## 1
Amino acid sequence: MNPPPIQWLAVFAAAAKYSSFRKAADTLHVSPPAVSQQIKALEEYLGSKLFRRNGPRLTLTSAGEFYYQVAANIMSLHHSGFTEFDQRFNKRSLRLSTPLFIAQELLIPHYMAYKELQSKAELRITTGSEYIDFDTGQADAAIRFGHGGWPNLVSRLLCKVHISPVVSPLYQAKCMRQPQSDLASLVNNHILITTDENLQDWYSLFPDIHPKDVIVCDSYFSAIKSAEKGLGIVLGLFPAINNWVNEGRLTQLSNGYFDTQSAYWLVSPKQQEDNPLIASCFTWAKTLFDGLPALHNE
């Protein structure tokens, strides 16, 4: 008996990864019925059920778990092999995934500076709030915010980050008139803006804080814009938002900073470590971060 058509494996691997035909369809840019039909065809070919259907949620059978490891290994080898082939023989484009805030504030306004480093290369910038999965082949490199040291990735430091709560002058004037003895008391019982619905970013700095209300945004860019509009207090990432403070769009509640050991990093798969386009991207991005202005009050 011959193995099943290899195109079925990509569909099966995506459905198993996301436990959803709909999410697999979105990833593969096909319709959910098309995914369902190919999974059914694969199950009939193998003579075994691969999924248990529990409403919209899928779980793998024991046969499905075994075959998922086969499919996942094949797809990972295919993606990494194609990426290496493309970089070595054809590639003159770099796909960079980055947070929306960094793309809008830093990268896109200075796009042509990358072209000066790689005049014949195309830089494709995509944005998102979740970490890109390099195994899917959707990006060659990414700018991430965090502590670094991600497994199987090369992490190049772009900029260390310090944190301090910021508000718009409008919110400060309307809602924060009473002086407080310390920063924790100052931000307590106010509207907090965050990208984390569990408020772990706030609780890590102020464990005993009790917010008046919480606004959860889908990106840091949205959170900063919400603060600028006077909706509440947000944790400012310095020096990334130095311009916003210098221009008076936001104001610091304290001259002090929290050092959380977080930073912006350029990350890429280890097999891409010697890619000259990624090296040029790091040089370009590092120059942009290094060129962020100092705060006027420092």
## 2
Amino acid sequence: MQQKSKKLTALALILVFTLPVILAKLALDNEWFNKGSTNKGQLLNPIIEAGDLFLVEGEEPHWRLTYVIPNDCDLACENAIFSISQVRTAVGREMDRVDAVFIVTENSDLKAVKNLEENDFGKLLKSDANNVNNLFKETGNNGIFIVDTLGNVILKFNSTLDREQAIMDSRDILADLRKLLKLSRIG
């Protein structure tokens, strides 16, 4: 009787320690829950290495909210510009670590460029349209991008025509940017 009790105790101990491992393995293999992705924007894979475009020698590294000004600045373009300016302001005391950068090509809407210059929404970065198109050939340049301190384009957020949706998207951009700023000691 005592021998049987020892065997049951040993079996119970083995079961207590192995059952959670087996259940965890089953949960992972069968995708019973959402995997741990917390970013709201589209993580670019592979990232776009754009250091030549964004890095200026002697300038401190900063995080960048970037938008390419299109040929015709429609409502989606206006919403993107508004979102970038609002997000940059909303980071608060971390604002000195974040730049708003608008890429302007020879084809960009002149009215939008003039508006950006007059209202000082951010830095204007002039570039050749072919270079910009080649840089963003995999993802398209029709969205708001987060660029890290090394000049790598890492996240994309789609622009939208709907103003209310643009405001909601701004919250997502802000959430991702705050996480990046919290995790980064650079910039």
## 3
Amino acid sequence: MKFSPCAAALAILAFTALPGHADEPSTQTTITIYAGGKPVATLMMPIGAKGNLAANANHVDDGNTQTRFTGNVQGKLQLPAAQELVFYGEDIELKTEKLSPERLRAVRDIEAMAVSDQLYRGRSATGELSPEEWKKQNAIDAANMKRLVEIVDAFGWPGVRFAGAASGTAFLVLQHADHASQRKYLPLLREAVRRHDAIGSDLAMLEDRVRVADGKPQLYGTQLATNPLRFAPIEDEARVDERRSSVGLPPLAEYAKMLGLNYTPK
């Protein structure tokens, strides 16, 4: 359905946040903001989320699975059990995508890993577990990584565009995997960050973990050494805060304070 309002008029559209799939649990709705014809930000709804949207705009182009608002856009999105989300701009698109059964299963499996990843290690604030507890957690980690490899082989790295918030769980599974897996899939995480599909601070942690395990100095200061507790060696430490800032991490001195460490910037 196309809307062609007269000059200076407003088109008003109200519909569920899942047009055409109101009762379908395997759909995902996104709101994308454009500038100069290019997407600059996207808000992803949880899979299967339903809601009501009302928006005013100079022009509304309504398709089967997406609606584009342009010119003085003002709208409100109401999700169940949530406050209203107000948005505005000059070029905004609302799109609903029906997920394939395979992708839906992959995302749900990654979401489920969030619990098992912390089943034993989450019981201790210091990471001190019994040998038997570590044996059980390591077996879980291996099973999670096996399933993650299947997902990566089928779909590529499950970044934000693919898995939404669950993309963070995919990172944790890799972070807790064996060293060979970390080295193998690190380039995929690098590429995901480059295309704004993964979090830079996650990449920093994995980069440092792989480098330390390889006997190299870390880049971002995310890894600690023990006896006594201190930062593992850092390459070009005088510029570590520049690198940390580039991936959204606070200065190393602030991080050290959070950990209760004494640290003097180089």
## 4
Amino acid sequence: MVEMSTVLKAQTRTNEQHSQLNELRKQGNVPAIVYGYNVENTPISVESKSFLKVMREVGRNGVISLDLEGKKLNVILHEYQEDSLRREVTHADFLAVDMMVEIDANVLIELSNDAPGVKSGGVLQHILHELSITAKPDDIPEEIKVDISGLEIGDSITVGDIRGNYSVVINHEDEESIASVQPPREEEEATEEASESTEDQADEK
């Protein structure tokens, strides 16, 4: 159930002119659009401070109760655009969802704990940074933590290794690597040099 603290008020808008969108932003609002379940594509605007407050509360994949002039919609933030210099959200897309129907979402991967192989001089490689999953809106996690405390030098952890830890459907092949610990660079270079030397000797013969 969506808590009252996650309600975000929105207003419809009809003017799509660039000057009007900039004026909305100057007034402290974010131009947006809502579409999906039980709603037509509707241009809206939300108050910027309220938007940021709600996003801090529910997280990137959390469900928001959007109050569109009295009509309540369960939505998630599907996409957003940001001014990288001002660090301000300039546009947002909200996807209205049916809480009983599964949807696809991308969830960030966070590596947790320390890998023993790194302490031994290995180099940690974080290969897969997010997972595509399928789940009901309320079941979408904010992030997926992957424990790397068992990785020694030469080890890796794959999607197949974590699939059974979560009730959501993970839309990746089991063989896809999430993280690995590679040998120290000096060892790699020494191995490459030894290999080249062996090849040179074989060529001379």
